[in-house]
Request: fold
Amino acid sequence: MPQNEHIELARKRHGYRLDHHERKRKKESREVHLRAHKSKKMIGLKAKLFHKQRHSEKIQMKKTLKMHEQRKTKQKNDDKTPEGAVPAYLLDREGQSRAKVLSNMIKQKRKEKAGKWEVPLPKVRAQGETEVFKVIKTGKRQKKAWKRMVTKVCFVGDGFTRKPPKYERFIRPMGLRFKKAHVTHPELKATFCLPILGVKKNPSSPLYTSLGVITKGTVVEVNVSELGLVTQGGKVIWGKYAQVTNNPENDGCINAVLLV
Amino acid sequence: MTSEDVERLLIQFQDESGEVLGAPFDVPLDITPDKLQLVCNALLQKEEPVPFAFFARGEAEVVTSLRVCVKTLGVETEQVLPVVYQPQAVFRVRAVARCTSSLQGHTEAVISTAFSPTGKYLASGSGDTTVRFWDLTTETPHHTSRGHTHWVLSIAWSPDGKKLASGCKNSQICLWDPITGQQIGKTLCGHSKWITWLCWEPLHLNAECRYLASSSKDGSVRIWDTLLCRTDKILTGHTQAVTCVKWGGDGLLYSSSQDRTVKVWRAKDGVQCRTLQGHGHWVNTLALSTDYVLRTGAFEPAFATINAQDVTGSLEEVKEKALERYNKGSNPERLISGSDDFTMFLWNPAEDKKPLARLTGHSALVNEALFSPDTRLLASASFDKSIKIWDGRTGKYLQSLRGHVGAVYQVAWSADSRLLVSGSSDSTLKVWDVKTGKLSVDLPGHADEVFAVDWSPDGQRVVSGGKDKCLRM
Reply:
């Protein structure tokens, strides 16, 4: 037993004194008076330090009391109407000031040059090979280990045909193949179940992109003809990018947010 | 003998609906629109000559002479050429050329402005929670009406010009008397979020101007009884904010909402008739082809005088006049809805659910759409800095008016449908001549964005209000 636990040990063994709790309560209430007495009688450097501490404690106590008081009384609504009146048609829109618009344009041009795009989930945990693939052993003595099975959800196109089983290196199980995704429109806050057209980019590795592995943060292309969006020329938009926001292998469905 | 070697052409006059007028006859190719007008008036046997605009085969307008038209169309001179004639408004509205005055008084941005149906009074609502009435003859403030507790978002005159309703951001509606500036009745509370639009019942349905429809962000439309100052009906059905509500001339209410639908209700019992779907994003604005007629009620702009007068006559007379004017217009009522998905739909809401046409072309959201007073043209203002003119009947694209450097917020037609004024976020107003598609007058002078524009129904004045807290006439 460590040196300093004898009190606790005794308490565990024999319990508390019968009057322990009452004595404790009374001692605590006497403490207030003792402190006040000390504060009056102390002198010297000790006193200075003590007074400083007591002063700050008092301030803190006053603040908390005021806060509690405020909650009890009901506040009258602020009479002053806020600034920045806008007509009804601008109310639900975030007004962009002109300066911001210009700087946004410049930023977008720079991003286009760099090839980086703004996505809702910019940083995603990179999935290592051991996570995504499971080693399948083959051969007469089960020693050959060159086959891999994908353990994450994947998308294969419409006209997908497996390679001859003897030669295929990556196995994509049918149970983990998905065709539809639940896509949320960020402004409308409505969710639609849209068919996936293809996997555009998987942030972990280009190998996963080519295999069609869908993990959190993957950018997929979805068929949005259901939404009825139209370009300036009157053409109907039917494909848009969306980024996956959940771990589909855990949930059994793909949730994504549309990149507008 | 000098034989006039001018080529002649067989033309046949047709009116807009295709009915032929008289027999085909010979005219020289050099004929000008004036002469064509004389001929047409003679054929129609009108007492007063009515100005017409002529369109060869319904497409190309005859501007200088028939010869130019024929060349552009490439018509064979052997066949009969149908020429469609369109009566133009008898009166002409002069383009507003200058700012006659700058009316200060509001302490915050001016959010909404409206002329009364006869053009006698002017009211403006602003962010300083007041509604101000202005005297138009002296161009000075008349009354300041206090009563709201938050920004006054929308105002609407009753069609007889005797009451003004204003809705604020705290979801309250107040009624004001323009003559005294005092509040009539109680404040109407009931909505839970701010009021987006107010619309009165048309005069020919009820001459007392008793009922008022209001739409709000809480997704409901309420019909108020202004005499008893309480809610008459509540129309729920929209799942998101209702952006605009319009009371049609046939007793139907149209409401557009952010849930991408437009709903048609029967005003008598509050039952929903139809839901018009098709938009891909919020529906921002609605416009009816009979908007102008419903707004002015019994007032006939052709009989306007310099000093605007009140509407006279008993309730019955007034109702008759309003009904007459309503029936003169082309039936059925058409509805246009403009949306954030950059397109507009043209509907015939009384008949069917499918849109008549889809008007694409804008590259940013459509903020406001308005039919011209003669319902032949349609103007749409959009955040892509342009205004597009479309044919009011078919929805075909006619022309684009470019010139603004900022988003165009609101447009207003002149009473004769020849001129269009537009206010934008770049703080200028521009007056456009619709026939030529060119800028007629540029009206700078505001210090900041222009939020509201209105042309008085008698065509004499244009008022604009904006973020710089002053109104300009």
User: Anything to note?
Assistant: Chain B touches chain A at residues 108-109, 111-112, 126-129, 149-151, 153-154, 169, 194-197, 217, 241, 243, 258, 260, 278-282, 284-285, 341-343, 358, 360-363, 367-368, 409, 451-452 (CB under 8 Å).
